[in-house]
């Protein structure tokens, strides 16, 4: 075959060390595996053909009763075979724990674009405990990243060598909050991170059912209306107040204005919107906008309706200084990573939220991959607790949205939501 398009990729042959480790992992042979895992790097070797790491191998070897298997791969070493034995899930758990303790990377991808956690979830109920171990490892990695971030901010001159297991930490670092889940980059996927500065300088495309950035990333989409509705209802449980007695509301990120229209319909006493993108601000200021200067002048006596033009990072210090306090705060930006959300609820919410107030945010971190979503949901809960807040989660079903490029996803570069349930956070101060 002369046509280069038909040239088969040449795979590096698997080396004996990798083969041995994968075999012991798939046999859940802890005694044989342990001494090998003392050597740095051995916990995260990968089969060049399948992309399996020892974690994948240990999990794949657990078929459930319905026969949901993962095309179990058996590594032969000197005639030994790893199949035929009944799987003891407790042994599998011990192996997975040992692998994590030895630096195994929780979100390495195999050639099917699955992390070990994705595989454990797909194999069914029998491997749920293994899935949990993957989530816990992801949470530990991300919490470590948070600590390292703080350390680096204090002393950025001292660059340490990357330790085993830190690659997973790096992958989490690129996770973007809101409506672009970068997360774990899939094999062959074009890497194009969204970042705040580029987004805010980009041209936007306003359509009836979505708002897109210049790269056709979904900034906001109409399918999220139900999530916005539930968020408003849970943030403001007492909506039937007399005019002028409504709540004091702060919303960060206008987008399509879906949540702000709902907030406005509750007849708030104060309604502050912070928006940074010039094109969104232009729409907001238009004569036919529901939030033009006419709206700003319509606040009830003693209240205030205002659009703050600029980034929340630049606007909030002044708002704090002015002494404004809110009953409900909602945060939903675009192109910002988890550290921005964390900065918001750690540095600003404590000073801006009334002691009996409620704070919510769009929980879209890692929502293109269940295991990442579960990791981020737990990380957020831990960090919120450190910031003095308690979270109540409400599960909101997300109806089938159609496949990549179908229905509302038509024209959107990447389907950022693939899960059937949205976990809606409502936070309040710990008693
Ligand atoms: C996902 S949309 C918000 C959608 C909104 N919840 C709705 O119901 O339509 C995110 C919005 O945040 C804005 N944004 C992004 N970064 C921001 C920042 N640092 N400060 C203020 N607004 C920002 C974007 O321009 C965009 O309008």
TrEMBL record:
* Gene Ontology MF annotations: protein arginine N5-methyltransferase activity
Coarsely, its chief localization is cytoplasm
> What EC number(s) is this enzyme filed under?
2.1.1.-
Acidic residues compositional bias: what residue ranges?
155-173
Q: Where is the RMT2 domain?
A: 192-431
Q: Which residue spans adopt a coiled-coil conformation according to this UniProt entry?
A: none
Enzyme class (EC, first level): transferase
Q: Which UniProt keywords apply?
A: Cytoplasm, Methyltransferase, Nucleus, S-adenosyl-L-methionine, Transferase
Q: Where does this one sit in the cell? A: Cytoplasm; Nucleus
InterPro entries named among the record's database cross-references: Ankyrin_rpt-contain_sf, Arginine_N-MeTrfase_2, RMT2/GAMT_Mtase, RMT2_dom, SAM-dependent_MTases_sf
For biological process, the GO terms are: methylation
A GO term from the CC aspect: nucleus
Q: Where is this region: Disordered?
A: 154-193
Q: How does it assemble?
A: Monomer.
The entry's family comment says: Belongs to the class I-like SAM-binding methyltransferase superfamily. RMT2 methyltransferase family.
Q: What does this protein do?
A: S-adenosyl-L-methionine-dependent protein-arginine N-methyltransferase that methylates the delta-nitrogen atom of arginine residues to form N5-methylarginine (type IV) in target proteins. Monomethylates ribosomal protein L12.
The molecule here is called Arginine N-methyltransferase 2
Gene name linked to the record: RMT2
